Here is the input.
Amino acid sequence: MTRMFVDAWDPSYGSSFEGGEGGGDGPASASSAQVDVDVEVPAAEWAPIDASSAVRPPDVVFLVDGVRRNDAQLWTEEEDGTSYAGLAASYAAGVVRCDLARGVAELAGARVKRGLFTASPSVGDMRASSVLYEVHRVNGTGEASKLQAAVQPPLTALEIDISAEARSGGSDGADLLIVDGPLRNRRHLPRTIGYVKTQQKQYLPAAQQAVVPRLRHGQRTPVFGLGGGLLGGFSWYLRLPNSTGAPWSGVVRVECSPDLSPDQAIELAELSGVTLPRFASAAYKDPRAPQNLVPIAGLERRLRGMLGDARVLHRALALETARSRW
Here is the structure.
């Protein structure tokens, strides 16, 4: 008999995984990345792994995230008659420091930046009232549809800077940094894992993929290797508590740097199993529970508030561009 499940996520956020026709069988879009499923155990021995009672959680956990918002779409009119698209965007990054020994969480740092992204060779920094949008020159013709992607590199750079500043206080190497999303070019950061909430690609062969729906709360899959480009590294799946019971409910993918040894990757996987579940959110508090970790949810709200009033900024940008045409 067919069973039905309601995805715990608020539908306005999409789905926690992109399933195929079978629904609930996990991501349907196959990845082209090369996969090594023999990193921790032989492929034939894949099975759910319990969190080890011998592994001690880190003394301090840092969770970093960034938010972004498009403030206005713009167009230039160059002296030679050509025109370029522009995007005025605000973005912010912050870090929450969780002292697990004392049971205290605090904002360890946050910063807001604003940028004007365009391929125009003539546009410079733009000041809208008291707010400065620093110009970021993009390559190529700068199509409007591609400008949003140009915001991600400076946002990632800001996340790296804010993480380094938060860690500079020192934690005797007993900390863990959790990046909300794939590691991308943050793979050089020590003791760092990437935390992927939404599952869009199918990385594992069918036999190993079948292990993921069997995970119980707090269990993980064996570590596997992913090759190719920014995706390269080690990865594993983990099921968080407070999931609905659907095959892929509460499942997250965790990743770490390819520069680590397999033993170091397995050590981080074990550490994630005793750390991430304690931050899982509940459906009555968060529309993206349990994957949207409680400290991350609070950080996102704080950062969005720091971006300022979108309507005020849009009006200031409109007034500034109108003055430049006079």
Summary: The two ends are 70 Å apart (CA to CA). Confidence is low (pLDDT under 50) at residues 1-6, 20-24. The CA atoms of residues 14 and 198 lie 9 Å apart.
